Amino acid sequence: MKRIVVPVVLLASLTALLLGTVASGKDASSSKAGVSRYLVIAPHTPEECLKALDDVNAMGASTLKMWDFGCKSGDHTGYLVINASSEEQALSKVPASIRDKAKVIKVTKFTSQEIAEAHKQMNTSTPPQAENK
After folding, report:
1. Of 80, 83, 60, 64, whose CA–CA distance to 11 is shortest?
2. Given CA atoms 107, 78, 11, 89 in this order, what sign does their dihedral have?
3. Which of 20, 69, 94, 103 has an alpha carbon within 20 to 30 A of 85's alpha carbon?
4. What average pLDDT does range 44-67 have in this prediction?
5. Which of 16, 38, 5 is nearest to 108 (CA)?
6. Domain 2-10+32-121, CATH 3.30.70 — does that match?
7. Largest pairwise CA distance in the chain
């Protein structure tokens, strides 16, 4: 029973989040304060591969679409980029069977201006702009 309840609750939560995003017409990252972008890396062994894929699939089609896998290339790892309010929320999108091996990394994008500002703060010269060839 417990094995069924957790995926159902996760699927219902994800569905509610997606429906709210679609209804508002906004990207999930811009609609809620405190939402960050996370990269989730979930390795598994070749022996665990089909179970890991089955477990992600059991979380629902929308969750499965969010994942990329390197398994066909011999890299038995699932990769997920997700907007979430915490590392724990991002990790909740990983099946329990491989969650203990997963790594969650908060990621950000930088603008050219932010990089230039970082150089100014470090009292270093700004590197030359990339050349267009």
Report:
1. 60
2. negative
3. 69
4. 97
5. 38
6. yes
7. 61
